[in-house]
Design a protein that fits this description.
The protein is α+β, with helices and mostly antiparallel strands and 114 residues long. It has two domains: 33 residues, no CATH class; 77 residues, no CATH class. It contains three helices and five strands; from the N terminus they run ααβββαββ. The strands form two sheets. A three-stranded antiparallel sheet has the order 3-4-5. The protein has a two-stranded antiparallel sheet with strand order 1-2. A hairpin with a 6-residue loop joins β4 and β5. The chain is elongated and about 50 Å long. It starts with a helix and ends with a strand.
Length: 114
């Protein structure tokens, strides 16, 4: 594959130089690009490839306070529910979801509700 790309990139008599340069930029850039396609992670644990340890894992999820949590809290406080404004911090549906790798414990993705 690499030798084919090198052949295509090399200027020849049949290919003008500018075209060969364009091919070189397009093909050689494509050759070094590493594209990692992961399925969308939402509220529940999902299977993905960890970008840190390169293993195929099912993520561990943890709910953390995010923008949505603070927005609902602020909204409740504005309407005078000062006692209720702590509720979003206890309701998982109002919080962001942090996906962690079970083997290296690093954060893979944070699903934000807002
Ligand atoms: Zn990992």
């Amino acid at each position: 594959m690499t030798s084919n790309i090198n052949k295509l990139c090399a200027p020849t008599a049949s290919k003008p130089f500018f075209l060969s340069t364009l091919l070189q930029v397009a093909l050689c850039r494509y050759n070094v690009t590493h594209l990692v396609v992961t399925p969308a992670l939402h509220e529940v644990p999902g299977q993905t490839v960890c970008p840190h340890c390169q293993q195929s894992v099912i993520t561990n999820t943890e709910h953390t306070a995010g923008l949505m949590t603070w927005a609902v809290c602020g909204g409740l406080a504005l309407f005078g529910c000062f006692l209720c404004c702590c509720i979003p911090f206890c309701v998982e549906a109002c919080q962001d979801v942090e996906h962690r790798c079970p083997s290296c414990q690093k954060v893979i993705y944070v699903y934000k509700r807002l």
